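Thread: Newbie trying to understand structure tokens

Hi all, I'm a second-year student working on a class project, and my supervisor (Dr. K.) asked me to get a predicted structure for one chain before our next meeting. I've only ever worked with sequences, so writing a 3D structure as a token string is new to me. If someone could post the tokens and maybe explain what I'm looking at, I'd be very grateful. Here's the chain:
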Amino acid sequence: MSKAASTRSTRRPTAPAAVPAADAAELIRSLAPLLHDWLPRQRWFAGKGRRITGFVPVTVTELQPYERAEQADSDVPGLLHLLVRVEQQGTTRPPAPSPAPAASSPASASPLAGDCYQLLLGVRDSLPPRLAPALIGHAAHGPLAGRTVYEGLHDPRLADLLLERLRTPGARGPLRFDRAGAVPAGLPSRLLGVEQSNSSLVYGDAYILKILRRVFPGPHPDLELPLALATEGCDRVPAPVAWFEASDPSGSGEPLTLGVLQPYLRGSQDGWQLALAALAEGREFTSEAHALGRATAEVHLALATALPTVTLGRSQQHLLAGAMTERLDAAAQAVPALLPYVTGLRNAFDALAELGEAARGRPAQRVHGDLHLGQALRTPDGRWSIIDFEGEPARPLAERRRPQPPVRDVAGMLRSFDYAARSHEPWRADWAARCRSAFCEGYASAAGTDPRAEPELLRAYETDKAVYEVLYEARHRPDWLPVPMAAIERLAGDG
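---
Reply by user tm_fold:
Sure, no problem. This is what the structure looks like when written as tokens:
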């Protein structure tokens, strides 16, 4: 943004334009003091606990230039779209969990790591009281000197502008907007405040726009998989209506997926809240679990048809079991409570390696990758849908797109039933066991095979998930540690 651009008065907004590199660097220097304080407080910022050492602009686009008004309260707010690389020192900590955390190992330490984040910043002279919670700060120098900078998604005027861009496909500076269907204009917006790793705007209770905050080069599963499922006619996943991306400035040719607009399932409830309500009311949840198992299998079948599948041979299964064993050993060093169970837990991974020795290939395909009760929505008519195909946000994108055995998703859901049951007093282990069984039966009714038919595979994935849960809870929610430790005790004795 040039200094001349920052001092406009009555000119009407122009078409969105990329900010030249020199001006972009100057703009980031102007914003840096504000971002240093604001970014670490955001729920979706993955680098908490690590010192920020700098900001590097990747792309900067004026989606709407700021226009100072001659009369008070009639200015046109500016909207800046930024892709910014945040340089940090230290070790990455895992993100906050969903109701049942996904199996993952912490990101490796790096002396200087840089994550790319998407920011949509509003610019005004001053904020009206209704936008006070969105304040980021007041720029003291540079092209934004004297301006107020705020989180643009809180501003209905700017949210409406973003929807209008999605309605009209085409390039906007370095950004490209696409759509698969018509999008109505003038829908009122509201910003949801429940997501951890992204931000979402709901338009008119008809559509939901997910803004991906941490950006990676390559096809994003949260766009790629729902589009593939739509081509197969699978209605268990809301089909993308519109989306926007940027080209990777590094020249890789890969897209940077930035946002996806999908139908909003009005009146739906997520499985986590439904399970907790059933427990509170003393009700069984087996019929719901059975139906959810069937829905999960339908999604897996459609993904296997829509996208390539592979067979994991002997060497791949050995690598899989070895990686699980390494995660167990690292977790046991960090959480001594695991030590008495290490031998029994290793047996689960050894059994998986022995399956590979038998030279029996295992099918692998694209899967959800982070499936739990919070990722399943039930509509008022009782139908289950699966959402949020992003996978584990802490994992590299290439790893999240790797074909895996479908049982990984099954294990994630089975662990989620345990989490729900343990959140109730008294602990309802029997309730969880019946839900787990019903889910597998429902899965088998659609897939034709019961996940329990390969107990070694299922046990290995459940164990890997529970080991991660122990590590996470010990670090972040010690009061929850008994939940995965109960599973650890059970799984260590299953061999």
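A couple of things are worth pointing out once you decode it. The two ends are 63 Å apart (CA to CA). The longest strand covers residues 110-124. Feel free to ask follow-ups in this thread.
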